[in-house]
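Handout, section 4.2: multi-component inputs.
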Amino acid sequence: MSEPLRIAITKGRLLDDSIRMFQKAGASCSELLDPGRRLVLDVPELGLSAVLAKAPDVVTYVEQGVCALGIVGKDTLMEVGGSFYEVLDLGYGRCRFALAAPRGFSLSARRGTLRIASKYPNVTRSFFRSLGQDVTVIKIEGSVELAPVLGLADAIVDIVETGNTLKANGLEIVSEVAPVSARLIVNTAAMKLRKSEILELTEKCRGVLNA
Amino acid sequence: MTIFKAASPEGTRDKLFAECLRLRGIRSSLMELFSSRSYKEIMTPELEYYDLFVRAENPLPQETMFKLVDRSGRLLVMRPDCTAPIARLVASHFKDAEGPFRLCYDETVFRSAAGLDGADSELPQCGVELIGAPGLRGDIEIVSLAVDAVRSAGLRDFRLELGHADFFFGLTEELGLSREDEEALRACIESRSFALLDELVAGYSGEAAQCLRRLPYLFGGPEILDEAAALTSNPRALAAVERLRDIWRELVSAGRGDCISFDLGLVQGLDYYTGVIFRCWTPGAPSSVLAGGRYDRLLCDFGLELAGAGFAVYVGALASCFECPEPEAAKTLIFYESGCLAEAVALLGGGAELSCFATEAESLEYARRAGMKLLVVSKNGIKEVDPNV
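Output:
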């Protein structure tokens, strides 16, 4: 038996969903459910050893090859980019990127350069580039909905799940930007050097997800 | 000013003794190998005109290039790639010559790293270009030299992966894809985005579409070639598979087949490559340590009807796979009386260094502290002094 494949999993909701998927695939996930002080958590049934990380770090770990695999949201992949294989849409962690603005806002009615606030400046830039519209992007670290309320920006680009937060702040969705869900990513060299193990795992996950 | 005193620019760093030894060792064994195969070294300028790298086929985004402005206001870049300058060199110096020529280089390319991800902006590369050898023999020479290159650098556990541009182009041509869709599809296969690929191909039916859907999985041992050949009847794609098989057979008979694998989904930089494409992977390196292929159109851009093929070894990535011990400190100190410099210098090498002190007593004291033995060279000859007595 070769050494386990190291996988980086995004902490939080994606971790819970990932544990559920692994359990359906036949793993007990006892270490993942109760990490204690351990930093590296084994999932022996699937030949994995997991580390938990913040989403952008998952991408860094996989790109640099210290983890062969990673589970991370498409939102992060779109924002930070990088070079890796994106082999599986895991289907969970579903939400979407949307452009939202105070009621009555219309993209075509405004003249002059729009100011758009977002936690995701790269996603925002490439969305407006695809529309052929030049905008000023303002990076905000949290509570992006505040920006139009305070008059800092005309509209925001953010992750939307239910839309309740938007509504509570008098905002509505102007345009969908992109759907988001969790992805399984693979380091390029690992894919080549450990093909059979990785494909076996992706097939297992695919089987569970389609069940 | 002072805040930058201790820092080097993002993506660059100082390299000290052990790392230098390791890099130097790899570079010299590669260059020795290339020269033994009749590849002649060339050097192109570190600085080039920006325009050289903004031809349509160049896959390098402009923000990755370091730019400068010369006296007359023209835009220059720090060489971001070796092949385009070499194409320029061939086009301007070998206009009327007939191929083949064999060229090799040991240079640094500069690419502005995105920052804070540990990537280097200065990338040492050693590589070869075989110009004017369009056929199978040219492919075989380049691929087998690539195997020998990583071996000569000391790598034992590695995989050289072969693909062919025409497999992908044969299929997309059959589907009649627009340039844009073709690029979207290529990006999908490059990043193995299986889900998105299914979506893109969904509108098409038939053999070529089926085969494209399967393309990201078409990597592995020689059995992949049989699988690929069974999936398509497109003549261009089949010819690509046969070419790979021919290369592989020759390498196997030359004892270089064990490390060869195939990836027909190897579609990076396809704008550049027109035939065989290859990359070398090894455990311990997060990305490939060598990349190359055939680019028969590149020289045409420079007005020369000549085929080209070559590869570059990413020396930095390769070096990171090896441990290298720190160079040893000198064990012997040599103090010489005035007039005996020549005799003292003759004793250097093998871990000896000259004493910088003016007297034998000071030299002795230094040797004691540094744990060295002392040789005293005088007109009467050489005597060894044990500093601990």
